[in-house]
Design a protein that fits this description.
InterPro entries: AAA+_ATPase, ABC_transporter-like_ATP-bd, ABC_transporter-like_CS, ABC_transporter_ATP-bind, P-loop_NTPase. This protein is of the alpha/beta class and 258 residues long. The protein has seven helices and ten strands. The relative contact order is 0.18. It binds adenosine-5'-triphosphate (ATP). The site of adenosine-5'-triphosphate has 10 residues, from α1.
Length: 258
């Protein structure tokens, strides 16, 4: 079996993690365990360190102290098995949509015919089969995000790190992208760490919502609450989860809610 058929996704293990920019502490004592295939959504006030945490998990920022493991191995630098997705699509403007989607496969040395087949398959899944030969600039923002989702998942990463990926989209396109993400994960399981400011998006997508907040100590911050989202995602349980996320967000000094 090649890594392209990797199963349920990579586990993430974070304990007593501190991250800094130079001398400046951003996160302190972060503890978080993510199961293979789980979607964990990270919310928190602007500047509390959500993107910083994602960057560290991606291997773009060194660990100051504590432990950070993905798939049981300490993170030391970037790895093709950990894909990072931003709000701004990072498509290459001079390549067609199909070639953009093929790119991670090319980087992994997958032969051309298989690349084409897999890219076509993913473009069909995200509803863009007819646009394969167009350039990114000829597509809408929502379509470009769909291309980016296809490009991310085509190489079957064990862990997908998404930093406000749908933040620039209008409400309708955003809801469609959320549906699409949940749908394609059924076809291609991966562990997902997803950062958003939108509480509705958090309780809709997350198996669990993690709230980061300021502790005050040292100016750093850590996990103040973790909310498991129960199925079905509607009615009173959903409202209660939403209320609890909001409460943790508005009381960022609270740590370790029940
Ligand atoms: N490259 C950097 N160098 C120094 N400080 C940084 C750098 N990037 C971010 N910071 C600081 O680290 C803190 C955390 O930033 P980060 O971007 O992780 O927050 P965030 O929770 O993702 O914010 P937002 O919700 O606004 O995107 C902020 O105070 C920010 O100013």
């Amino acid at each position: 079996m090649t890594t392209l058929e990797a199963p349920a996704g990579a586990a993430v293990g974070i304990s007593d993690l501190s991250l800094r920019y130079g001398e400046r502490p951003v996160l302190d004592g972060v503890a978080l365990d993510v199961r293979p295939g789980e979607i964990v959504v990270i919310v928190g006030a602007s500047g509390c360190g959500k993107s910083t945490l994602l960057r560290a998990v991606a291997g773009l920022l060194p660990v100051h102290s504590g432990a950070l493991r993905v798939g049981g191995r300490p993170v030391a630098g970037t790895d093709a098995d950990r894909a990072l997705v931003f709000q701004d699509d990072a498509l290459l403007p001079w390549l067609t949509v199909a070639r953009n989607v093929e790119l991670p496969l090319a980087l992994r040395g997958v032969r051309r015919s298989e690349r084409r087949e897999r890219a076509a398959d993913w473009l069909a899944r995200v509803g863009l089969a007819e646009h394969a030969q167009r350039l990114p600039k000829e597509l809408s923002g929502g379509m470009r995000q769909r291309v980016q989702l296809a490009r991310t998942l085509v190489a079957a990463p064990g862990l997908v790190l998404m930093d406000e990926p749908f933040g620039a989209l209008d409400a309708q396109t955003r809801a469609a992208m959320q549906d699409l993400l949940l749908e394609v994960r059924t076809a291609r399981p991966a562990t997902v760490l997803f950062v958003t400011h939108d509480v509705d998006e958090a309780v809709r997508l997350g198996d669990r919502v993690v709230v980061l907040g300021g502790s005050g100590a040292l100016g750093g911050s850590g996990v103040v609450d973790e909310i498991t989202i129960a199925e079905p995602r509607s009615g009173a349980p959903q409202d209660a989860a939403r209320a609890r996320v909001l409460a943790a967000l508005t009381d960022p000094t609270r740590r370790g809610g029940s």
